[in-house]
Amino acid sequence: MEQNCNYTYLQRSSLDRVDVRSDFMPTGRKRKIEIFRDMSDLMPGFKRLMDTAGHEGIQQLCTQYEGLYQYAKILESIAEGIHSGKIKVPK
């Protein structure tokens, strides 16, 4: 993010929290749904980051921050599972 100083303190804070926590995600042992559950407290910050950075901004940040990319992929996978019906959610 040092390359683009236009990010606000809240954006930077959200990015740092997601990236750092994602770096500690165990690989292979936990299922995506468990990681999603364990990191659910980060969703409001991630949403705020998506809303303010926009699609292009998130794409750029994901190339710079591996943890952010991994978290985004997990959220995308969960959303696809809900949409397809593979993941059942209470109504």
Structure, explained:
- With 91 residues, the chain is an all-alpha fold.
- The chain contains four helices and no strands.
- The chain has helices spanning 9-23, 32-38, 43-64, 66-84.
- Mean pLDDT is 76; it is low at 1-5.
Care to give the gist of this entry?
69% of the residues lie in helices and 0% in strands. It has 91 residues and is an all-alpha fold. The protein is globular, with a radius of gyration of 14 Å.
Mean pLDDT, as a whole number?
Answer: 76
SSE pattern: HHHH
Total number of strands: 0
- Span between N and C termini? 39 Å
Low-confidence stretches: 1-5
Strand content: under 5%
Please state the overall shape, judged from the principal axes of the Cα atoms: globular
Please state the CA-atom Rg, rounded to the nearest Å: 14 Å
Proportion in helices: 55-70%
Helix-and-strand structural type: mainly alpha
Helix run count = 4
How many domains? The number is 1
The biggest sheet, with number of strands, parallel, antiparallel or mixed sense and barrel status, is: none
What distinguishing features does this structure have?
mainly alpha; 91 residues; 69% helix; disordered N terminus; 4 helices; globular
SSE layout:
Elements: H1 9-23, H2 32-38, H3 43-64, H4 66-84
Helix pairs in contact: 1-3, 1-4, 2-4, 3-4
